[in-house]
Amino acid sequence: MKDFLLVYNKLYNYYGAQGWWPINKNYSGKLRLNYGEKFEICLGAILTQNTSWTNVEKTLINLRKNNILNINKLRLIDINKLAELIKSSGYNNQKSKKIKQFIKFLDSDKEINRENLLDVWGIGKETADSILLYAYNKPYFVIDTYTRRIFSRLGFCDEKIDYDKLQDLFHSGLDKNFILFNEYHALVVEHAKVFCRKTPVCSSCPLNDFCEYYKDNCERLINK
Ligand code: SF4
Q: 110 C-alpha to center of ligand 1: Å?
């Protein structure tokens, strides 16, 4: 049985608390959020699809500078004008449509749950789970490319494992606790940036003592 908590503890001991989700560039780890902060997280979760967080921050700064980083202004703004303002996040025409659809959903007063979020055009599983976990404190583990990369290299799963199967492994291997899931996903992202990059830096990685990739590709070379 692979130990997800052991990996978490190792990552946490190495990197410390990550303070997600960043709001107005502030990594405070705040869990009691006001409506505007929740909305900013939802917006960030949509904008970060297929782009880096650095680009999303540029977009959020631009929206703030133009005084439209709130649901009331974004509800009224012309969709093409919005696409112009969010250009730095890429796929801007699609994303402006997604933001408009998401606001329509919020205005519908439907319950904010996974099933309803997945019915909104442009909201996939990763985005829905990011919204539920980081804006609404619901225990859904967020799966992304980094999660697949690290956990397949560690030997927990196949690299092509589908979203639900890998999420099920996390959900059954850990207490369903939103604070733990919040911190764990943030640590996974940090680890993928620092050590477990596309070309991994294994020799000084804090997880290398039980990593299958390391055993197969690095240890053997060292012992040759
Ligand atoms: S030892 Fe290498 S492959 Fe394994 S988790 Fe660390 S960086 Fe990734």
A: 42
pLDDT tens sequence across 192-222: 999 999 999 999 999 999 999 999 998 766 6
Strand partners, 23: 26
CB 43 within 8 A of CB 215: no
Q: Are 188 and 194 in contact (CB under 8 A)?
A: no
Question: What's the whole-number mean pLDDT along residues 93-113?
Answer: 97
Judge residue 9's burial from the number of C-beta atoms within 10 Å of its C-beta, 0-12 exposed, 13-18 middle, 19 or more buried: exposed
pLDDT digits (tens, 9 = 90+) for 153-165: 999 999 999 999 9
Q: Which domains are seen in the chain, by residue range?
A: 1-16+144-224 (1.10.1670.10), 32-136 (1.10.340.30)
pLDDT for position 218: 86
H or E stretch covering 114: helix 114-118
150 lines ligand 1 (CB under 6 A): yes
- pTM of the complete model: 0.95
Identity of the residue numbered 35: Y
Q: Are 29 and 209 in contact (CB under 8 A)?
A: no
Q: What is the C-alpha to C-alpha distance for residues 216 and 207, in angstroms, rounded to an integer?
A: 14
- Is 116 in contact with 104 (CB distance < 8 Å)? no
The neighbouring-strand residues paired with 86 are none
**Which of 14, 190, 208, 209, when mutated, tests ligand 1's pocket best, judged by the most ligand atoms within 8 Å of its CB?**
208
